[in-house]
Design goal:
Aldehyde_DH_NAD(P), disordered N terminus, alpha/beta, Aldehyde Dehydrogenase, Chain A, domain 1, Ald_DH_N, single chain, 16 helices, Aldehyde Dehydrogenase, Chain A, domain 2, Aldehyde dehydrogenase, aldehyde dehydrogenase (NAD+) activity, globular, 474 residues
């Protein structure tokens, strides 16, 4: 970006970062963002932004990631639209004071819990879902009554530019701003004092964010990735094994061609069934993507040359390359890597020690499917764990003997629902898309409204004394 932006779009070369942040703080301190009317007006404007600019969003997603309109609506626009509608219908409920019980000894005192916005929040979004992972946290921040700075990922430049140019036309630019830029800009932002930082991205960058936040004791929520295993109990899988295989293929290559934090990273199966599973996977891939997926417009591309080269390096390790049983075609010019299946690559190879985040699927064979529990437990706790089995005893063992952010049986990714929380057991995780209906699980809002003021009203004759205490809920 060069020159000065319009309204809420800021150019770093103009030296306006601190000035703009000061404006956002003044807006918050004025109380403007706290009202239900302001919150609802911004949410409605954001919904209008999505509806007015659907074609532009599709175009930006196609440019950055090669996403087709169906995938773009399913994983991006549709997610944001549902999130806005859900928030609009719950803002009043989220803002309302909640009764808090008091010990009988303090009768007739009354207790209340009042949700309170944190103030000025900084949101770093990721490139793999550059619209939904940017706007979903913004929806949460607005719903909770905060001022917001959104820093979109520079690795999805068309989507970043769209957000920077369009958001100021719809939302309150004195309370919500978009700042574009690379690592240098991110460092400038991290030097500022924030009331909350919300980060989606890689563990390496998350460490930088959290190190900077410590200097100001700023609370941070991060969404990171990990290696998400799928246990395929072939002998006891659902009666329609074909459906199960379709779900594995859809869960691996459907969302951004494997570039998703909760996508399938590898599959565990008994060695005697591995051949049958691989043949069914090949058949389903061809059915979904044709004999030459490279020519298909309905499969996403790798985001950039850096990540393309990273994935190529994974495949070019000699022992890994020797384990390829399907696919392996790459096209650097088009940033395309064919859906690729590998059988028993070395467990100490990088493809099995680091998150793949791409269209490569290792199949790991075991003597007995129950060994999968020990296999998973010997590695870092996954963000998501999937298991295809009808064995109820095995299901109970998976639930009781493994630890992961979520466990899903006989399907892939359906845990990303409004009625289910979305967490990790390794890192503090956000919950912008999934809002439990019970009062303690509005993570989208609570992530930004974590300071709750407890007010106890004591009655002493005609005299009233207000006692205020604070709780910080992370």
């Amino acid at each position: 970006m060069t020159g000065s932006g319009v309204n809420g779009m800021i150019s770093m070369e103009g030296g306006r970062v601190e000035e703009s942040i000061g404006e956002l703080r003044r807006t918050f301190r004025s109380g403007k963002t706290r009202s239900a009317a302001w919150r609802k007006a911004q949410l409605k404007a954001l919904l209008q932004l999505i509806r007015d600019n659907e074609d532009k969003i599709f175009e930006a997603l196609k440019h950055d990631l090669g996403k087709n309109p169906v995938e773009s609506y399913r994983d991006e626009l549709g997610v944001v639209e549902k999130s806005v509608k859900y928030s609009l219908s719950h803002v009043d409920e989220w803002m309302a004071p909640k009764k808090s019980s008091m010990p009988l000894i303090f009768f007739p005192a009354r207790g209340q819990v009042l949700p309170e916005p944190l103030g000025l929040v900084l949101i770093f979004s990721s490139w793999n879902f550059p619209i939904s992972l940017a706007l979903d946290p913004v929806i949460g921040a607005i719903s909770a009554g905060n001022s917001v700075v959104l820093k979109p990922s520079e690795q999805a430049p068309a989507c970043s530019s769209f957000l920077a140019n369009t958001i100021p036309l719809y939302l309150d630019s004195k309370a919500i701003k978009v700042i574009e830029g690379g690592a240098e800009i991110s460092q400038q932002l991290l030097q500022q004092k924030w009331d909350k930082i919300f980060f989606t991205g890689s563990p390496s960058v998350a460490r930088i964010v959290m190190s900077a936040a410590v200097k100001h004791l700023t609370p941070v929520t991060v969404e990171l990735g990990g290696k998400c295993p799928t246990i395929f109990d072939y002998l006891s899988s659902p009666s329609d094994t074909e459906v199960a295989v379709k779900r594995v293929v859809g869960g691996k290559w459907g969302p951004c061609n494997g570039q998703a934090c909760i996508g399938v990273d590898y599959v565990l199966v008994e060695e005697k069934f591995a051949f049958h599973l691989i043949e069914m996977l090949k058949k389903t891939i061809k059915k979904f993507y044709g004999e030459n997926p490279k020519q298909l417009k309905d499969i996403s591309r790798i985001v950039n040359k850096h990540h393309f080269q990273r994935l190529r390096n994974l495949l070019e390790e000699p022992l890994v390359a020797a384990s390829i049983v399907h696919g392996g075609l790459i096209d650097e010019e088009k940033l395309f890597i064919e859906p690729t299946i590998l059988l028993d690559p070395p467990l100490d190879a990088e493809i099995m020690t680091e998150e793949i985040f791409g269209p490569l699927l290792p199949i790991i064979t075991l003597k007995n499917i129950e060994e999968s529990i020990e296999f998973i437990n010997s590695r870092p706790k996954p963000l998501a764990l999937y298991a295809f089995t009808k064995d109820e005893a095995f299901k109970r063992r998976i639930l009781s003997e493994t630890s992961s952010g979520s466990v899903t049986f006989n399907d892939i990714m359906i845990q990303v629902l409004y009625s289910m929380p979305f967490f990790s057991v390794n890192y503090l995780q956000r919950n912008p898309k999934n809002k439990n209906k019970n009062k303690n699980s509005f993570n989208c809002m609570i992530a930004f409204a974590v300071s709750l003021r407890h007010i106890a009203l004591w009655r002493c004759g005609t005299e009233r004394v207000w006692e205020v205490s604070w709780e910080i809920l992370i």
